[in-house]
Design brief:
Helix content is about 35%, strand content about 20%. The protein contains 15 helices and 15 strands.
Length: about 575
């Protein structure tokens, strides 16, 4: 069995020299182009390379600059170590933020601002020198925090595996005062710590008109939930919506703090959540055309792409993510009624299934070829075999629906029998009728992932599905649990699909409600209730505390009416 790896470890394994491939022909963004100038459908005789270039041009024509939103800080605060807090610290107010302008700061002084909530954006201020002579530059150190530990704990010595360049800090030099300063980099933050590293002894500095310039592809707030909705649901819904908002930039980023790239599995979840909170069909279309234009020569869609400084594809080909391209396209079509985009990208969606069906072995079981991977969850020990069959059935059913919507059912007619065959094979190989749950692999591993995807793929009956999720997950102490919000989402979705709505709501309250109770302003990349310092990268300060795949409770509440 090929072990599933974390997405980050795949990039590291493949190596920087082979991980990216670019399309030089579209190196300059085309954000100002009118979409109408680029044909949605190609001309007769268009080559695959020309088609991919056109898709990239379409994606670039759909680019929109994020909306800026100036926000003032609310308070000057100080961190206090507190073992009773999950995040290890609490913030105590020192003074209103308006008091900052009264302080004349010199070398060695510092302050810490609280902006009252999370945002992705820029930091700006007016810096004034006062004294006998403003006769030198000013050197400042700025540290940005999504959570208190980012600004309360030293970032060094850094023990992580990822580049320390992701750590949220800057040292800047301001040469001439007075001056309006706006840092060029975008950050993800609630807190900003500013340290005055040096000035001349002849003057001090004042900070005035300090602002965060929040940016997002959306604005406003989602419609309120129905009257009488439980307060914890309102809180979790609002946090999920903020998580989504701050990840919606010129693409659906996986996280505004770190990576800032477009992952297909995350996109699928973000797009679903956006349709019921911040609908932005342009952004979803842009992302799908980026994936399409950067597909491999055989047509397989990669797991992630980079959009800056120009569109680039990445080598990790996660088979389950490629399959979910089909689901993402179907759900855009359902939400937007955009049949033109669906018709344009349908052959590519169908191509994903053609490739994946070619990986079934002589027994009809899905096998990932050497050099490719499957994600399912962050867990190197997880056996993905049964889950992969579920993903295949789930997305094949979506392909059949998509074909129906655009009048291409005849093109996939043989797949109806194939779907039934996949489900029957999965049931025969991976369902234990005596213990009433599913297992996976030669060691017959029992996991939440296996139960969820066998249910979502329709590989077990409704009655069997309920038993699987109860016996193989919720009440099974030895079953391998999810590591990420990504898989927890699909477990909750499986519970809803088979009618265990109360259990789905309880799971959301336990997991996402647990994050909210632990102090989350936005939902995190991962959450271990027993250890706030856990990091798959070796250092908690490199973790992302606003992560796209965590935003989906709002989809359950608003789309599935799980209230």
């Amino acid at each position: 069995m090929i072990e599933p790896l974390s997405r980050r470890s795949l990039l590291k394994t493949l190596g920087a020299t082979t991980a990216l491939h670019a399309l030089p022909a579209v190196a300059q963004p085309a954000g100002s182009e009118d979409r109408a100038t680029i044909p949605l459908h190609g001309e007769l005789g268009e080559t695959p390379a020309q088609q991919r270039a056109r898709w990239i041009a379409l994606a670039q024509s759909l680019r929109r600059d994020p909306i800026e939103r100036p926000e003032p800080p609310i308070a000057l605060v100080r961190p206090v170590a507190d073992a009773s807090q999950y995040l290890r610290w609490r913030m105590e107010q020192e003074a209103p933020a308006t008091a900052l302008g009264d302080r004349l700061l010199h070398r060695g002084d510092h302050f810490l601002l609280d902006f009252g909530g999370h945002r992705a954006g820029y930091f700006a201020f007016h810096l004034i020198g006062e004294g006998k002579s403003v006769d030198s530059p000013v050197r400042l150190k700025l540290t940005f925090g999504e959570v208190p530990g980012d600004v309360a704990e030293p970032l060094y010595p850094y023990k992580g595996q990822l580049s320390s360049a992701w750590l949220p800090e800057e040292i800047i030099t301001v040469d001439f005062l007075p001056q309006r300063v706006r840092l060029p980099r975008r950050y993800a933050f609630r807190y900003v710590k500013v340290e005055v590293l040096d000035t001349s002894p002849n003057f001090g500095v004042r900070f005035r008109d300090v602002q965060a310039i929040a940016v997002s592809a959306t604005h406003g707030e989602p419609a309120p939930l129905p009257a009488g909705t439980q307060e914890w649901i309102r809180q979790v819904d609002a946090i999920g919506a903020r998580t989504l908002r701050d990840c919606m930039q010129t693409s659906f980023e996986d996280g505004p703090r770190r990576d800032q790239r477009l992952w297909l599995g995350d996109l699928r979840l973000q797009a679903r959540a956006s349709y019921v909170t911040y609908p932005n069909y342009y952004l979803v279309r842009r992302c799908l055309f980026l994936f399409a234009g950067l597909a491999r020569e055989d047509g397989m869609v990669s797991a992630c792409v980079f959009e800056k400084p120009y569109p680039m594809g990445s080598e990790p080909f996660l088979n389950d993510y490629s399959a979910l391209f089909i689901s993402a396209l179907l759900e855009l079509t359902r939400a937007s009624k955009d049949l033109d985009t669906a018709r344009e990208l349908f052959p590519l969606a169908k191509r994903q299934m053609e490739i994946l069906l070619g990986r079934l072995d002589q027994d009809g079981v899905y096998r990932v070829p050497q050099g490719e991977y499957i994600f399912i969850d962050w867990n190197r020990q997880l056996d993905y075999t049964a889950a992969a069959m579920g993903v295949l059935a789930y997305t094949l059913e979506h392909l059949l629906e998509l074909a129906d919507l655009i009048g291409r059912a005849v093109d996939v007619q043989p797949y109806k029998a194939k779907l039934a065959q996949i489900r029957a094979t999965a049931h025969a190989h991976f369902y234990d009728k005596d213990r009433k749950f599913c297992f996976s692999g030669e060691k017959k591993e029992v996991s939440w992932a296996t139960q969820a995807w066998m249910v979502l793929g329709g590989c077990v009956s409704r009655e069997e599905a309920q038993a699987c999720l109860r016996n193989g997950a919720l009440t099974n102490a030895t079953s391998v649990k999810p590591s990420t919000p990504y898989l927890y989402h699909y477990v909750a979705e499986a519970l809803v699909v088979c009618g265990l709505r109360r259990e789905a709501l309880e799971l959301i309250q336990q997991y996402w409600g647990g994050m909210a109770a632990a102090g989350a302003d936005t939902f995190w990349e991962l959450y271990d209730p027993a250890d706030s310092t856990y990091s798959p990268y070796g250092d908690v300060h490199i973790n992302s505390f606003c992560h796209a795949w965590s935003c989906t409770p709002t989809w359950f509440f608003r789309d599935q009416k799980l209230l």
